[in-house]
């Protein structure tokens, strides 16, 4: 059988976006998903389309990705439910406000102006559902939210339409590089050959990297979310907090989705997750403190998805320095949803050895080989 | 953390008309007080708030399969109805639709797909928020060896 140009390992949003962009360029592409499409982080993301509060190296990518979100209908035939509602990061205290002021100053120093500081009265006028004690906030007006599973499926459909082959229930269990081709051994005993490989295996990215002789400290967690009963409309933006993890939005049906980073317990072997009720309760406290309207709302559902988490909470994007024709696109640490339309394109370009114009050095798979690697941003990013 | 937590050797989940009782080793809890459950722990809603009961062993009543699956204590081998996988956003509209056996089956299938759990019963945000105080430290990253 003729070798593939590219095999993408992982059928989440990142992998499917890579497959889409690669197939669109005429490559012969195969996606291997060990479980089902969008089964983990991609399907259970909070769906935040967020440039707000990004770690500095992510900001240029997030801004370019946001432009793609506005064009998805033309690009992949589905707008993925994207609503440019704006995102706000609320300051609960004067200390929070100082953090936000420093954040704006940092962004301005690097030439970014998409985050705008609002004082208390201004933010309360903009977000009337917020608690009156809110001290101010940061607003990214072009941000918004979309539907995660719909987005994942839409990229999958677009990739197939562009010619990509997607197989569910196929795990890669070994890899050998022979005569400039990768021979990937599959769980059913068969194998496929390909010129290039993209590791978009999410929380399983480290396990997959080891098949190719690579190693980096990719961990994982189960990111939890809650959904309330339907309430009368009281907020249009996606809201977060400054010093506490929160992603908060009201759906068109009135339900409120509360997420942003509280972590449950994941089992990579089984793919199962368990909720951490104490941390779920802390998330409920944050939401209750900032939005009085939900205090008596009933929580009707909670869930979690397994997500890869890097020590510095920014992704791994780049070519392997050890294995030829191997590209990494994983470790998004709960923040990959918004980036995916662009980062899939970047991975496709890397795999095809096309020129790279986006700044991705900070995401190198080798960065943890250097001593004293530390977090790149002081303000916690909400997941999703 | 002021959340109430008690450990028992054995928790017996009873049908709703059974009086709850507890001694040092065994707790009998009524099914209709369970808010959420996982292997080794159940969270029950009491007048004073949510209480976590941990245990070495749980005995379940012979209730309907769907209840046993819903509370997540039993990995039942019986095939559950398979619903088409939907977005968590889509779940919202499902929750709004009239409660019929078909809708419940679809919800349960979704719950199984998602992994953790539709709560057995809805609970107010304020009541969940009262389970503990402050901001617990972030759960550490899990890592494979």
TrEMBL record, chain A:
Source organism, top-level taxon: Bacteria
Name this protein carries in UniProt: Sarcosine oxidase subunit beta
Region (Disordered) location: 365-384
Alphabetical UniProt keywords: Oxidoreductase
A GO molecular function held by the record: oxidoreductase activity
InterPro entries tied to this protein: FAD-dep_OxRdtase (IPR006076), FAD/NAD-bd_sf (IPR036188)
Oxidoreductase keyword on record: yes
Gene3D superfamilies for the chain: D-Amino Acid Oxidase, subunit A, domain 2 (3.30.9.10), FAD/NAD(P)-binding domain (3.50.50.60)
Any one annotated GO CC term: cytoplasm
Organism: Tanticharoenia sakaeratensis NBRC 103193
Residues in FAD dependent oxidoreductase domain copies: 5-350
Automatic annotation (TrEMBL), chain B:
Full protein name: Uncharacterized protein
